[in-house]
Specification:
Layout (H helix, E strand, L loop, with lengths): L1 E4 L12 H10 L11 H5 L13 H19 L2 E4 L12 E7 L14 H15 L5 E6 L5 E7 L2 H10 L9 H12 L6 E8 L8 H5 L10 E5 L10 E11 L6 E10 L6 E10 L2 E10 L4 E9 L6 E7 L9 E6 L5 E7 L12 H7 L9 E7 H4 L9 E5 L8 H10 L3 E5 L6 H7 L6 E8 L25 H7 L5 E7 L18 E6 L2 E6 L16 H12 L1 H7 L2 E3 L4 E3 L5 E5 L5 E5 L6 E3 L6 E8 L6 E2 L6 E3 L7 E9 L12 H7 L5 E5 H7 L6 E2 L1 H21 L1
Parallel strand pairs: 3-4, 3-6, 6-7, 7-32, 15-16, 15-17, 17-18, 18-22, 23-31
Antiparallel strand pairs: 1-2, 2-33, 4-5, 8-9, 9-12, 10-11, 10-13, 13-14, 19-20, 21-22, 24-27, 25-26, 25-28, 26-30, 28-31, 29-30
C-alpha cells in the first residue's frame, strides 16, 4: 500500500494552512469595554431574551485548513495503490517501449472508427499522463516487426508518428515485436523498464515458436497488454481466398475465365445470398449471389470475352462485413504475352496434314488468330542450325531421328537458362542417339518399341484425377475421354542411375506415358508415343488441344513465371534475366529503378501494398533520388527505351483474417514466467487506472467542495 504524487511541487501549498491559523490567533485578542452615555437609556428599555451569535471558531478554522490541504493535494495528482511503489507511473526515470499492433486486422470497424484509431487515441492519452522524465520508443508488431522510433524523451513525437500512420496490410507477429522491444531496452540505463502491447489479441499473431525464442529474463521487464477487441462491432464473416485466371481458345474469341474461391470463416453459421462481383478495369463485368456452408468454401467462376491487347487488371469482391480488407482479391493478366515455340518436324511429307508437326501446330494456334498467346514456328532439321534458340521459350522435337552435330549442347544450354523442351517419339527416332547424346537432358533411356496389331487390345492411358498442375483441370468426362484413346505403339523407358524425375501420366500397363525432369532453370518432358496419328488416335480427340497447350505453358515457365507470380504482401518480386536495369511501377504510381548486380537476379522487396506491380526493363541508368533504406532509385518517369515485361499481383495473406481472441489466461500461458498484465482499454478508461494505481484527484476535489458547503452552512446558521 503506497501513495505517490505525479506533481509533488504542489504539496508546497500545504504551507498555506498557516494563513487561517494566523488570522484566528489575531482575532482572539480581548477588546476593551468603554461605557457610552446613550447606552444608559437603552438599558432602561424592557430587555428581551436574544440569543447572541457565537459561531464555533475552532471548527471553522479546521474546515478552512482542510480546504487548503485538499486543494494542494488535488493539484499534486496523488495516486493510491495497494501494491508497492513500482505499480505506479513512477517518478523515477522509466524507459517505455510502445509496441503497437498495426496489422490489417486492426482495420476492423468499431462504432465510428477503426480499432487502430482507438489504439492511437488511447496511446496519446496514456503518454500525456506519463511523467516528463520518461523515455519512449515505438515498435510496430506487423510481420516483420520494425522499430519506428528509437529512444526519445518527447512523447509528442510518438503521438505524431501514430496519428500519421495507418494499419498495414501485413499479418501480426507479437513475438518479433517483443524481440525488438527487448533489444531496445538492452541499450538504456534506466532501472525502470516496461513494455506496453496494444493489440486486438488475435490468436494468429501470438506464434508459440516466436515467443519461445525470447531470450530476455522473464521477470526483468513487466509487459502490459491492452486489449482493444471489445470495440469490434461485427465479426469477419467471409473472405475471397484465391483467384485464378485462365485463357480459353475454344472459339475465335479470347475468353478469359476467372475462378474465385470464397471461404466462410464462421464454423457454425451458413451464409446465404452472399454477393460476389467481378470487376475488370474499374467496370463490374458480372455479379452473382452464392450460399456458403458453415466453415466451408465455394468456387465461383466468371467468364467474359476480351480482345484487347493491354494487360487486364481487376478483382473479385464480396459484400462488406466486419473486416473489409480481405473482401477483395486482386488479379492481373497479360493476354498478349506470346510464347514463342519452335517445332522441329522430324518427318516432313508432301501433304501438310501428314506432317509430324501438323496436329501440334494446329493445337497451339488453332485459328491462326492474333488472340492466341502461343506462336508456333515449324522448322525442319535442315533449317534447325540457322534458328536462334534465344528467340524461343519452348522447343518441341517431333519424331526427330537425331540432331545436327553437337546441337545437343545448344539444347542443354537453352534448357539450363530456363527454356522448355518437349520430346515426342515416332518411327524415325534413333534410340541409340537419345541414349548416348541426350543423357544430360533425359533422365531415362529408351528401351523397347512396344506395338500391337489391329486385333489386340491397344494401350490406354490411366484415368482418374491427377494432382499435377497441367492435368488437374482434366476431370470427369475430359479424363474419361482421354482414357479411351487407343495407343498402338510406344517406347518403354528405364531410369538412369541417380536421376530424379516425375511420371505425370502412365498407361494401364504401368509404362510411363510422360516423363518430366528439370535441368538448370528449365524443364524437359518426354512423351513416349507420337503426336501424329501413326501411333495413336490422340491428336483427333477434343482433349488434345488443351493438353498440348497446357504442357507448353507449363514448361515455358521462364516467360510465364514473371507475369503469373501471385505474391503475398512483403514477399520479394524475383526479376530473373532482367537487366541491366529494371523499373517497377508500384500500385500508388511511384517508380523505382533497380540495377542488376553481377550474375545474381534482382529482387524488389518494397511490396507492402496490395495491387499490380508493372515491370519494365531498360538499358538506361536511372536518374533520381536514392532513398535511404531502399534498394533502388526513385525516378519520376520511365526511360524512353523501357520495355514492358509483365505484371506481378500482390495480395494480403489471409492468415490474419481468422479473428479468434485470446483470453488473458491464454496470453499468460504463452509467456510463462513473464510479468504479464492483460486489461481491456475500456476497463482502464472507466476506472482511470494506470499501472494498477487509482488517481485521487477527483476525491480530493469532491472533499474540497464538501468543505466549502459545510462552512457556508455553518455561517448561515449562525
Amino acid at each position: 500500500m503506497s501513495l505517490q504524487f505525479l506533481s509533488p511541487w504542489f504539496l508546497l501549498g500545504l504551507l498555506g494552512i498557516a494563513l487561517p491559523i494566523l488570522v484566528h490567533l489575531l482575532t482572539r485578542r480581548q477588546q476593551k469595554r468603554i461605557p457610552f452615555s446613550a447606552v444608559y437609556l437603552l438599558e432602561q428599555v424592557q430587555k428581551r431574551s436574544i440569543r447572541r451569535s457565537q459561531p464555533n471558531r475552532l471548527l471553522l478554522l479546521l474546515f478552512r485548513c482542510l480546504a487548503i490541504a485538499c486543494l494542494s493535494l488535488a493539484l499534486a495528482s496523488p495516486i493510491f495503490s495497494f501494491g508497492g511503489p513500482e505499480e505506479f507511473l513512477p517518478s523515477k526515470p522509466t524507459a517505455n517501449v510502445i509496441l503497437v499492433d498495426n496489422s490489417y486486422s486492426m482495420a476492423a470497424r468499431s462504432k465510428d472508427q477503426t480499432l487502430y484509431n482507438q489504439t492511437v487515441e488511447f496511446t496519446a492519452a496514456l503518454l500525456e499522463r506519463l511523467p516528463a522524465n520518461n523515455t519512449f520508443s515505438l515498435v510496430y508488431a506487423s510481420d516483420p516487426a520494425r522499430v519506428v522510433q528509437d529512444w526519445t524523451g518527447d512523447a509528442a513525437q510518438i503521438v505524431k508518428l501514430l496519428k500519421l500512420s495507418k494499419p498495414s496490410f501485413q499479418t501480426t507477429s507479437i513475438g518479433q515485436g517483443l524481440t525488438r522491444a527487448y533489444d531496445l531496452l538492452s541499450t538504456v540505463k534506466e532501472e525502470n523498464r516496461r513494455i506496453f502491447v496494444l493489440t486486438d489479441l488475435d490468436r494468429n499473431g501470438w506464434k508459440e515458436k516466436e515467443l519461445e525464442n525470447l531470450t530476455e529474463d522473464p521477470g526483468s521487464v513487466p509487459i502490459k497488454v491492452v486489449d482493444f477487441s471489445a470495440h469490434r462491432m461485427e465479426k469477419n464473416r467471409a473472405l475471397v481466398e484465391h483467384v485464378d485466371l485462365t485463357q480459353e481458345f475454344l472459339t475465335n474469341n479470347r475468353i478469359l475465365r476467372v475462378e474465385a474461391r470464397i471461404a466462410n470463416l464462421q464454423p457454425d453459421t451458413a451464409i446465404s445470398q452472399l454477393r460476389v462481383a467481378l470487376v475488370v478495369d474499374g467496370q463490374t463485368k458480372s455479379e452473382d449471389f452464392i450460399d456458403v456452408p458453415p466453415g466451408g468454401r465455394v468456387d465461383k467462376a466468371f467468364s467474359f470475352p476480351y480482345l484487347g491487347r493491354e494487360a487486364v487488371q481487376g478483382y473479385v469482391e464480396i459484400q462488406d462485413d466486419g473486416q473489409n480488407v480481405d473482401n477483395r482479391r486482386l488479379f492481373s493478366f497479360q493476354p498478349d504475352r506470346k510464347i514463342q515455340v519452335l517445332i522441329v518436324d522430324g518427318d516432313p511429307r508432301g501433304v501438310s496434314h501428314q506432317n509430324e508437326s501438323f496436329y501440334v501446330e494446329k493445337a497451339l494456334n488453332p485459328f491462326r488468330a492474333t488472340v492466341t498467346d502461343i506462336q508456333p514456328t515449324v522448322s525442319t532439321l535442315a533449317e534447325l542450325t540457322d534458328r536462334k534458340l534465344e528467340q524461343y521459350s519452348v522447343v518441341i522435337l517431333c519424331n526427330v531421328r537425331s540432331l545436327p552435330f553437337d546441337y545437343e549442347r545448344r539444347l542443354e544450354e537453352f534448357v539450363k537458362r530456363g527454356g522448355g523442351l518437349f520430346i515426342s517419339l515416332g518411327d524415325q527416332v534413333d534410340a541409340k542417339f537419345y541414349n548416348e547424346k541426350m543423357g544430360i537432358l533425359l533422365p531415362v533411356t529408351l528401351q523397347t518399341l512396344n506395338q500391337v496389331d489391329g486385333k489386340s487390345e491397344p494401350f490406354r492411358l490411366q484415368g482418374g484425377e491427377n494432382p499435377h498442375p497441367v492435368l488437374r483441370t482434366f476431370q470427369g468426362k475430359s479424363m474419361q475421354q482421354m482414357a479411351r484413346v487407343a495407343f498402338y505403339a510406344l517406347y518403354s523407358v528405364a531410369p538412369r542411375a541417380e536421376r530424379n524425375f516425375l511420371v505425370p501420366m502412365r498407361y494401364t500397363n504401368e509404362y510411363p506415358a510422360l516423363v518430366e525432369s528439370s535441368y538448370g532453370r528449365g524443364k524437359v518432358v518426354l512423351f513416349t508415343s507420337s503426336v501424329d496419328r501413326d501411333w495413336n488416335q490422340f491428336p483427333i480427340q477434343p482433349t488434345f488441344l488443351p493438353w498440348v497447350q497446357r504442357w507448353v505453358k507449363y514448361i515455358a515457365q521462364s516467360l510465364e513465371s514473371l507475369s503469373e507470380q501471385d505474391l503475398k504482401v512483403g514477399h520479394p518480386i524475383l526479376l530473373e534475366d532482367v537487366g541491366p536495369y529494371a523499373y517497377i511501377v508500384a500500385p500508388g504510381g511511384g517508380i523505382l529503378a533497380l540495377e542488376k548486380a553481377g550474375d545474381s537476379d534482382s529482387q524488389f522487396r518494397d511490396t507492402w501494398t496490395p495491387g499490380p506491380y508493372r515491370l519494365y526493363q531498360s538499358t538506361q541508368s536511372p536518374e533520381g533520388e536514392r532513398i535511404e533504406g531502399e534498394t533502388g532509385t526513385r525516378v519520376n518517369q520511365l526511360p524512353a527505351d523501357a520495355r514492358y515485361i509483365g505484371t506481378v499481383t500482390v495480395n494480403i495473406d489471409t492468415a490474419e483474417s481468422v479473428t479468434e481472441t485470446l483470453t488473458p489466461d491464454e496470453v499468460k500461458k504463452l509467456l510463462p514466467g513473464y510479468a504479464v498484465t492483460v486489461l481491456r482499454d475500456t476497463d482502464i478508461r472507466e476506472s482511470s487506472q494506470v499501472e494498477g494505481g487509482v488517481p485521487l484527484v477527483g476525491p480530493f476535489l469532491f472533499l474540497l467542495a464538501c468543505v466549502f458547503l459545510v462552512e457556508g452552512w455553518m455561517l448561515r446558521r449562525e
